[in-house]
Write a structure and sequence with these properties.
Helix content is 31%, strand content 28%. By secondary structure, the chain is α/β, with parallel strands linked by helices. Strands 13, 15, 16, 18, 19, 20, 21, 22, 23, 24 and 25 form an 11-stranded mixed β-sheet that branches. The chain has a 6-stranded parallel β-sheet with strand order 2-9-1-10-11-12, sandwiched between helices.
Amino acid sequence: MGGRAIMVQGTGSSVGKSMLCAALCRIFRQDGLKVAPFKSQNMALNSFATRDGLEMGRAQVVQAQAAGVEPRAEMNPILLKPTGDKCSQVLVMGKPVGSMSAAEYHRFKPRLRELVKETYDRLAAENDVVVIEGAGSPAEINLKDGDLVNMWMAGAADAPVILAGDIDRGGVFAALYGTLALLDDGERARVKGLVINKFRGDISILEPGLRMIEEKTGVPVIGVVPWLDVDLEDEDSLTGRFAGGGDGEVVAVVARLRHISNFTDFQPLALHPGVTLRYAQRPEDFDGADIVILPGTKNTIDDLIDLKNRGMLPPIVRHARAGKLLLGVCGGYQMLGNRLRDPEGVESAARETAGLGLLDMDVTFRPEKRTVQAAGTLAGGAEWLAALAGTRVEGYEIHSGESAFGPDVKFWMEPGGACNAAGNVLGTYLHGLFDDGALAGALVRRARALKGLPEDGAGRAVNMAEYREAQFDRLAAAVRASLDMDAVYRILRGEA
C-alpha cells in the first residue's frame, strides 16, 4: 500500500480535524502500517523544536506521537506565528524567513508550492500512509488562488478527502452541504466521505438528517463521532484552552499573555491531583496563588508592557517578595530580569524596557533564534531542590534572547536556569520541563510546605509520556468504533 494518502478537511476551523488526524495516525499504526502526519501550512504560537533544531507546530507533533514516529519539520513545512493582528513570522522548513502582513504572505505563498510538493513526496516515499490535515475550510473561495493547504494539497498528493463538520456548534448539515456546493467539480469528486464530529445525544434522532445529506450531496456519511472526553494538547489555535483545571490545595496561576506560546507546558500541573490551575487576566486573579507562572510568549517586550498597562505586575512582584514561588519560562523568564533590550527590533518596536527586577539578569534580543532539544540538570541553587540535585530534565528551547547574569544570580538548573538567593524566583528557557513529573512534584511539595501543609499529601505527579499514550489509545478506540473503518480503508485504497 506504500505511499498512499488520506486527507481530513473541515467545514471550518476548530471542527476537530487535528483530533481526527491524530486518531487515524494511531489507528493505522495499531493496524501495522507505517504512518506519518502532514500539514503543509499551520498557524500556531504553540510550537516545538525538533531533534535537528527546527521548529514546527505542535498539532503535527501530537499526531507524530500518535503515529509512534519522531516529529520532523517535513511534517509541517510552513508555520505562521502571529506577531500582531495583521502580521506573522513565517517559518519555512523550520527556519524563519521573515515577518509578513497577510497581503505580503498571500503574494509569497505560490512560490512555496514546489517546496510543499517535494516535501510531501519525500514523506510519502518513506511511509505506507500519510494522514494530511487541511486548515480552515476548502470553501474559502477568496483564498483559493493561493491555496497551499486544502484542495490544492489534496490534488498535489492525489489524496481522497474526508470532510468533517462540527455538530456541537450547530448548522452542521448546512455547513457540509454549503462547503461541497462551493467546490468545483474536480474538488467535489475528491470528497469520498462525510464525518459529523462532536455529537451529543440520541443518534436515532440524527439518522433522517444523515440520509438526507447523503441524498443531497451524493457523498456517504462514514461516521458520527461523539463528543470525546479525551485530553490531548490543544491543536493549532491562537487562543488555546485557558480554563485551567483541577481542584487541589495548591493554587497555580499562569499569567494570560496576549501572545502566549507553549501553554501546554503547564498541562502536567493541571493534571496533578494536588493542584488547581487557572489563568489570570486581571490583577485580582492572582489572589490566593501559591505558585505564579509567567509563560512563554512570541513578543516578550510587548507582552511585558501590556502586563504593566493592565496593572498585572504589582501583584506578581508582591507574590515574589512574600517568599512565594514564581516561575518564568522562556519569555516569562526574560521578564524577570532587570532590563530587556531589542536594539534591532527583532520582536518589538520598543527598543528597551525595564523588567520586574526579580533576577539579576539583562536580556538582549538578536535575530538568531535558538531552537534545540535540550536537557537541564537540577542543581543546588534552590535548597528545596537539593533532593533532586543531579536529576535530568528534558525539553526544548525556542527563543531569540541572550541572557547576561549579574553576581547575585544563583543557578537551579544547569545550563541556564537562574534563581534568586532565596530560591523562590526561578527562570528557565526549557519548555516541557514538567513532562516527566519530577520537577512538577517538587514544585508542588515546596508550595505545600510554604503553605503549612504536609509536603507529601498531594498525590503523584503525572508522567506526560505515559499519559499521552493512554489518551491516544482512548481516542483511537472511540474513533474506530464511530467510523466505518472498512469504508475508510476503501477510500485509502482508492476503491470508493
